[in-house]
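**Sequence, structure tokens**
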Amino acid sequence: MSPKQARSTRPELDTLDRKILRRYQRDTRVAAQRIAAAVGLSTAAVQRRLRRMRDIGVIEAETARLDPLALGFAVTCVVGVELIRETASGIERFKQRMARYPQVQQCYYVTGSMDFMLVVLAADMRAYELFTHKALLDDGNVRSFVTYVVLDRTKTGSEVPVEIE
């Protein structure tokens, strides 16, 4: 089963898989041996389960989370974008364009008054303005956009609740 197929159906995960994922997603550097001791399995069993969860697409990626400010990105903006034509090709073209901009950290196609919500990083407001000209104002299918400048990063991350309540 490919990772894409795994996402279209809900994979079977037992209680031990979920216990492993809870620990693993917080810090992928934790040794399988420590996870094994915490969940009551052998190290080899934990490694097999992690490999299976990678193979079926439950674990999409193992990445480092970087501090934008430490890298010179002092401004974070949440941007609502409204398109002129919400055709399938127009939506797909916008998604592809946004995926090419490294400063676009997240791009969501949403319901409501906006068509897309973006999270954008910039070194300063001038850099953000340049981004808006190139990515939004020069796009003939963008009707309008609204920018919310983030004052404080209260909570960020990609941790997913492991249990369904």
User: Anything to note?
Assistant: The CA atoms of residues 14 and 20 lie 10 Å apart. The helical segments are 3-8, 15-26, 32-39, 43-55, 88-100, 125-137.
